[in-house]
Amino acid sequence: MNDIEEYVSVGLFSALIILCFLQILFRFVFNFSLSWTEELSRYVFIALVYIAASLAVIRGAHVRVEVIDNYVTGKAKKYLDTVIDLSFALFMIYIGYYGIEITVDALSVGQTTPALGWKSGWVYSIIPFSFYLIAFRLVQRAYQRATGTLKNSNNTVGCD
Amino acid sequence: MFIFGMAMLAFIGLLLIGMPIAVSIGMTTALALFLSDIPVSFISQLSFSSLDSFTYLAIPMFILVGFVMETGGLSKRIVNFASSLVGQTAGGLGIVTVVACMFFAAISGSSPATVAAIGSMMIPSMIEKGYNRDFAGALTASAGSLGILIPPSIPMIIYAVTAEISIGDMFLAGFVPGAMIGAGLILAVYIISKKRGYKGQDEAFSVAKVKSSFKEAKWALLTPIIILGGIYSGIFTATEAACITVIYTLIIGLFVHREMKFKDIRPVIVKAALTTGCVIIILGFATAFARYLTISQIPQMIGELILQFTDNPTLILLIFVALIMFTGLFIETAAQILIYTPLFLPILVQLGVSPYHFGIILIVGTELALITPPVGVNLFVAKGITGSSMVQLTRAVIPFLLSMLLVQIALVFLPGAITFLPDLFK
To answer: What pLDDT digit, counting tens, does each position of B148-204 carry?
Structure first.
């Protein structure tokens, strides 16, 4: 269950490389430009970014200023981390809500993407979907912290 | 301007309580939009549209290249080659670290990836040879920051997209400044090593050894030629060059060096995806913030404010160096580029400064931000390898920081060193 983001990220990343390579291959070898690979790879990229951002939430890998860790420790730190996770979640729900609005609007207008001819609304739904996924993961973390089952509390990996 | 001030205060507050940087930027933007009566749905829209760019696809690919080079044995061969070239002088291993970082930077577009790849090899061998642990970590953190100044470079891609200039020319602009910073670091290593008695390798310099290590490293060393040659000859876009590099380094790692197995591919992609998620989520929110600034005409106000004070572009750039040094304590690469470019570039261009000149000063500023605490990603990576404390690393990084700052200030006065190569290729 906790590996879903990992599988999806690997799948999307691989798809990105394959799509981009296909585009180069067709242009050089077959002298023929595929119009849909560029568009599709852009959407795959956006999905990858936000699904991987959710993975980073699970791993506690988002970059932050750690000064406060020297002053707030123990139980107080636990409360603070919970407040931070939950306000991060609220923010995602808030912005994700507008995402739903935009998705619904685009669907009702019937706007389609230029090359693939897909309904723009569905493509756009990546934002609300992944933002709510991130919110879910944050609430899950807060719950795990409260019950003492949280792994990966605060590791900073190189994120740049 | 009042709202802008409020937003900045909120931003600093959020950062200090330990809110992730991306979210701090997002929340600040939401607050500023709300107070300015601009619909907050704007952030949601830009989370999608600001990433909807084919050029940005190069970013995850160059991140992946860094990890593949490490796993596929390309980094190791680069280090061996650098070691045969410069390992004999005083502070030999330190100088090897700088040179290896420069080579690695010419393939990888990311600075923490450079620290991780070169540091995981060089830091243990420096410590083994009696170098101070903090010195080894601080040096690698500093030299690794060259990853974003010597092309290809992820921050340069973000800057070129934001400033609407050519990525190829921006890459070219980075070569000379990259070499200058490299030389400055080598000088600093040499002086410190002389003082502390760090010796070079026992083996004498031998042409045969250089030749054999070059032969080993030739596939790795060919990579920058493929990337940059492909881009400048107009065969590839930056994104396509990045994709080809991923495939090329994979083939070398899997089939030529045979140090990577098929089962290694998945963990490498997971690492690259994780880094992509952390970096690019910042890009989406920071673009929204930059757009808010433009809508509220903050750049014009700041521009007028500066012009009241001075219309000397050199002086403005020097003020900018100080400003980015300060904000670099807290904010990292992508956010700085997206916010500072609309704030400073229009007025500087109006005063006759080349966008490449400003771009390089900005990129060097973000390099310094990577090695200044409390938020300095390169320091975190180096700390993970040496086990030093942040305070120890910070103390050890000061000489390198100063040497890089001096080069940055010199570059303010030497626009020719930056624009010379892009002009040559026009």
So the answer is: 999 999 999 999 999 999 999 999 999 999 999 999 999 999 999 999 988 887 777
- Residues 347-386 on B with a CB inside 8 Å of A are 370, 374-375, 377-378, 380-381, 384
- In sequence order, the 6+-apart residues with CB closer than 8 A to the CB of A61 are A152, A155, A156, A157, A159, B274, B277, B278
Q: Which two tokens stand for residue B69?
A: 């080079």
Please indicate if any CB of chain B lies within 8 Å of the CB of A35: no
Whole-angstrom distance, CA of residue A64 vs CA of residue B15: 7
- Residue B207 makes CB contacts below 8 A (sequence gap 6+) with none
Residue A112 sits at φ, ψ, to 5 deg, of: -120, 160
| Three-class secondary structure of residue A138 per DSSP | helix
The rounded Cα A135 to chain-centroid distance in angstroms is 11
DSSP-assigned letters across all residues of A24-51: HHHHHTS----HHHHHHHHHHHHHHHHH
Interface check for B239 against chain A (CB to CB < 8 A): the answer is yes
CA separation (Å) from B189 to B91, B135, B185, B286?
A: 6, 9, 6, 36
Identify from B15, B23, B333 which residue to disrupt to test chain A contact, counting A C-beta atoms within 10 A and taking the largest count.
Answer: B23
Alpha carbon B211 to its chain centroid, in Å, reads: 31
Per residue, the 3-state secondary structure of B118-167, as one string, reads: HHHHHHHHHHHCCCCHHHHHHHHHHHHHHHHCCCCCHHHHHHHHHHCCCH
Closest of B214, B165, B194 to residue B355, by C-alpha: B165
Residue of B nearest to A52 (CA): B277
Separation CA A55–CA B281 (nearest Å):
12
Exposure class string for B107-120: b at 16+ Cβ within 10 A, else e: bbbbbbbbbbbbbb
- In tens, the pLDDT along B274-326 reads 989 988 898 889 999 988 988 888 888 888 888 898 989 999 999 999 999 99
- Do B226 and B244 form a contact (C-beta atoms < 8 A)? yes
CA atoms within 13 A on the CB side of B324: 34
Direct distance between the N- and C-terminal alpha carbons of chain A, in angstroms, rounded to an integer? 27
10 Å CB burial of residue B275 (0-12, 13-18, 19+) is: buried
State how far the Cα of B106 lies from the Cα of B249, in Å rounded to an integer. 13
Residue B384 pLDDT grade (very low, low, confident, very high; cuts 50, 70, 90): confident
Interchain CB distance below 8 Å, A158 and B284: no
Residues β-bridged to residue A119? A112
In angstroms, the separation between the Cα of residue B156 and the nearest Cα of chain A is: 13
Q: Identify the helix (H) or strand (E) that includes residue B406.
A: helix B390-413
Using CB atoms and an 8 Å cut-off, which of residues 76-105 of chain A contact chain B?
80-81, 84, 87-88, 91, 94-96, 98-99, 101-102
Mutate to test the interface with A, among B231, B278, B394 (most CBs of A within 10 A): B278
